[in-house]
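Sorry to interrupt, but I need a hand with the structure work. Please put the record directly below this note.
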Amino acid sequence: MTEPSDTPTWYGRGLPHVWLPYCQMKVAPPPLPVVRTHGCRIVLADGRELIDGIASWWSVCHGYNHPYIREAVERQLATMPHVMFGGLAHEPALTLASRLSAMAPPGLSRVFFTDSGSIAVEVALKMTLQYWLNKGRTRKTRFLCFSDGYHGDTLGAMAVSDPARSMHKAFREVVPRHFVVDVPSGAASFADVDRILDEHAHEIAAMIVEPLVQGAGGMRFHSPEALSGLHRLAKDHDLLFIADEIATGFWRTGYRFACESAGARPDILCVGKALTGGTLTMGATLAAEHVFEAFLSDDWDAALMHGPTFMANPLACAAANASLDLFEREPKEGRVRRIEARLREGLEPCRRLPGVVDVRVRGAIGVVQLAEGGDVYALRPRFVEQGVWIRPFKDVVYLMPPLVIDDAELEILTGAIRRVLEEAR
């Protein structure tokens, strides 16, 4: 990789020493040096401003540098930036736990804090396996997961992602093998899943699903009816139901949590990303009381032996509590519906372009799906030339902007997609 010309000293000094995410560094273009952010915008070292169409991997829901979150973190920094959560407790964490439990789907009364969304999934899987072990059901060690699913980059999360089409397919012969099925869409496909569960429920611990929207696996949508049917199958076959709402939680799909669209009550819920408004890294795994009670025993070996060093970090908790304040005070549903309408209006013309096979919108998520075989990565620098930050992957060009984005910025984003795709095709 070679660095852009006329860049800051720190960039040239540090770039040769970093290993960048999700790229082949032998051929990938160098990353863009960023010097500050504000609102929905990223400011580059050369003075250009990019409107962020993907909210820094879907996390910056309230926009960058929100003064309310910043002030909350500054206050916490002045009193206690960190303390271990083993044997100690603090107000920001306990307040956040009670608030998350109150706003989550009913029944999720216990909150285990993690460093990130991927670790929240890892804890959910570990929690599930030990739940059954503690109950003496030692054969229930596998999971039912879904084609095009994606749950994170840690080992357990990779194992329950799509083994053939995810970016982790190189590990499919190494990670544990689970049951992978297509998200059912009709009576026949539900019957197929039902048959699999009839035969294998004795060895399946849980079903894990990304409700309504499968994110990094390809921005695939499914209906609330499909979600409701999956939840029913899990309950009918004595499986725990894990909802991975790291991407879909906190009103991204138009619901506080996507599970609410189907009335599905998960046994375990994973959150992250927008939890702190994208200010600091944090995730959480929420569990129903019956899951928690399976770990209560006089035997220490029955306890959940997991504890990230920085779990419940006070700074992250302060940011998360401030983020929840903003969600409570501001018109979430109205904002998401407005964004949804603008995305439909702005992206629908792409349907007529050669090479476009679908245009779909759900809540504050807009997707243009392209025919397979094209080089979507080549489109990335073209978007920068248009003054926007959009990162197509696989066969999709998508938008998941901050929920505070205005109509003018949305039109710039959707207009850039129309122009780039028209020029490229």
